[in-house]
Amino acid sequence: MDKKQRFNKDKIVSFFPDGDFYRKRAMQAMQREQFSDAEKYYKRALELNPDDALTQMEYGVFIMEVGRFEDAYELLRKADELDPDNEETTFYLAEVHAHLGLLREAKQFALKYIGLSPGGMFMEESHEIIEFADQEETYLEDGELLDGEVLFIQEKARKMMEEGNFEQAIEVLENLLADYPKNWAVHNNLALAYFYIGEEDHAEQILYDVLREEKGNIHALCNLAVFFYYGRDEERLTSMMDLLAKIKPYQVEHRYKLGATFALTGRYEEAYHWLRSLQKRGFQGDVGYYFWLSNAAYFTGHRQVAERAYEKLLQMDPSKEGFEPWKSIEDELHPDSYEEDVPFLIEKISNPYSSERMFGLFLLGKSSHLQEILSHPGYINVEELSSSEQLFLAHSLDYEFIAENDFEKSFSRALGICELLYEQYKPLDLQGTHLFQMWFTLCENALTNSYSFTNPNAIAAAIDYMFQSSRYDQVTKKSLAEKYSVSVATLTKYVQQLIQFLPYTSE
Question: 444: closest CA among 384, 383, 502, 368?
Fold first, then answer.
């Protein structure tokens, strides 16, 4: 029989995978613990059938189990909109609200679940959520229970700011203010977002508007102090910090804000008082809380408290290892050195010239203010840095660097030259900054022209000689060659090579 006649065409069914097909594939992948595949299948299922409440709910539960509670919240909310009386969705909404700390809403959904399914499989868990919410509510002070939707949107905007999406955060917060014009927390967050995009005057005005309506708003006062600190407005900063020192808040949130602000601005005694008071009350903080507590404790002589606080921080965020306050300070650093000059460092990393930014990013790794400056999301946008600048920043953050191509190998040797020069000039005084400014100008041009930087010791000697001989008559090649353990002939060779990379030498 002809193969073409073996099958009845009327019995052939075309196979087009639909949303339900991918949802089932996702469940199978989860059972096999292939979680990345499961998420891909769930996403595809929702692309094909975005209005399927079951898929929305299952995906939300999956996301919640891996700790992505904000994403789970969105998915479960959508599932609830599509099928408002689904028992499972109702319970999982109670659970995700509890994880997000929105206890009032968690209790409401748990009670709704009990009403929908009096003998349901999640009855015991629902009662536990209600009991937990009731217990926690007794510890919360007046005004701390806010509308869950507002809190969630604010948290969403805060995460946007952490990721550098300030314009997007501003749009979210502006829309929120249209519905809640008297929510001062939203105003405060909006002020921060404007400050981080460089609209300092507008940001300040928002905070002054808040203070006109609510004179003692601690968040607005603290945010103004932060603005004055980063703007190096010492007069207004001192006045504001003296005012904050007179405030004696009771609420946990206000004590945390006040303590963090004192720590940021270097007033560690006050910072330690407020942050430690929270710990003694059993407060379980976040990464930021333990970071500032550790710094405040260390700089006020409470080394054990500082170490315990940083241990808790590392449990939450292991990537912060190496940023302990006692490790970030070199014994030989002097408070008046340029490594410790915050305005100088900020000016360098914000400079329009790449060579200046490279200098600033390198020097940042030598400063005890590294974490403080990095905590300001408006100073460094990694995506806008050149590849060389990104590598200098990575070096300052102690990231492991493995050179894999010619450029990276050249950069690695250039970095070695930086360290050789720094060893000779640390801690940096004015003369040292001038040498490094010359070096980084030359370094940028040399990297651009694919210079290989072979023999780092000789190049460091040549740079040092070129710098000193332009300023002092008594400098000899012999003295510099001996300092870097190279011959005079080798030093001379590299001086001749490097001159071409200095600016304006072609004229």
Answer: 502
pTM score: 0.55
pLDDT digits (tens, 9 = 90+) for 375-424: 676 678 777 888 899 999 988 887 777 788 899 999 999 999 999 999 99
Residues 108 and 141 sit within 8 Å (Cβ to Cβ): no
110: its two tokens = 């748990």
Q: How far is the C-alpha of 245 from the C-alpha of 270, rounded, in Å?
A: 7
Residue keyed to tokens 């959904």? 109
Amino acid at position 465, single letter: Y
Beta carbons of 359 and 341 less than 8 angstroms apart:
no
Going by C-beta distance under 8 Å and a sequence separation of 6 or more, which residues neighbour residue 204? 191, 224, 227
Q: DSSP letters along 445-466, please? A: HHHHTT-----HHHHHHHHHHH
- The residues near 157 (Cβ < 8 Å, ≥ 6 apart) are 169, 172, 173, 176, 189, 193
User: Cα–Cα–Cα angle for 488, 489, 490, nearest 5°?
Assistant: 90
Q: Rounded to an integer, what distance in angstroms lies between the CA atom of residue 389 and that of residue 359? A: 9
